[in-house]
């Protein structure tokens, strides 16, 4: 069983930056694939990016070059660094985890979810 807790959301102006954190529980968490998804009001949950090992990450085209995912296994934490934020990045951001070694892009592939953190980007 893995429990995930996100933090770091907030209100930021367009062009600004935020860093989200996803703290995971359990000794096996570092071996899990961890991904970030987001859900804007009235829209479906969409894949943002994911990471398996400390240097194996994959991103949606909409955030590539602006967002970076990293993990600190000593702290059982995965980070989402978001730069050059746009109003269309406004959403609730969720982290999710699954056993395995492949970053999947559909929510149904993930077993564990955090409660979400709101990110609002003003224009």
**E-strand count:** 11
SSE order in H/E notation? EEEEEEEEEEE
Q: How big is the Rg? A: 13 Å
SSE-based structural type: mainly beta
Categorize the overall geometry: globular
- Give the distance, in angstroms, between the N- and C-terminal Cα atoms: 40 Å
Helix content: under 10%
Number of helices: 0
User: Runs with pLDDT <50, length 5+?
Assistant: none
Describe this structure in words.
- This protein has 123 residues and is mostly beta strands.
- Helix content is 0%, strand content 48%.
- The protein is built from no helices and 11 strands.
- The strands form 2 sheets. Strands 2, 4, 5, 6, 9, 10 and 11 form a 7-stranded mixed β-sheet that branches.
- The chain is globular and about 40 Å long.
């Amino acid at each position: 069983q893995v429990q995930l807790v996100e933090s770091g959301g907030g209100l930021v102006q367009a062009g600004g930056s935020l860093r989200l954190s996803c703290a995971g529980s359990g000794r096996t968490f570092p071996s899990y694939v961890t991904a970030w998804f987001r859900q804007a009001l009235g829209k479906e949950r969409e894949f943002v990016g994911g990471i398996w090992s400390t240097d194996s990450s994959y991103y949606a085209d909409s955030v590539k070059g602006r967002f970076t995912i990293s993990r600190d296994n000593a702290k059982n934490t995965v980070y989402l660094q978001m730069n050059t934020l746009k109003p269309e990045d406004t959403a609730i951001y969720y982290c999710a985890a699954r056993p395995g070694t492949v970053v999947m892009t559909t929510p149904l592939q993930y077993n564990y979810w955090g409660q979400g953190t709101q990110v609002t980007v003003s224009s």
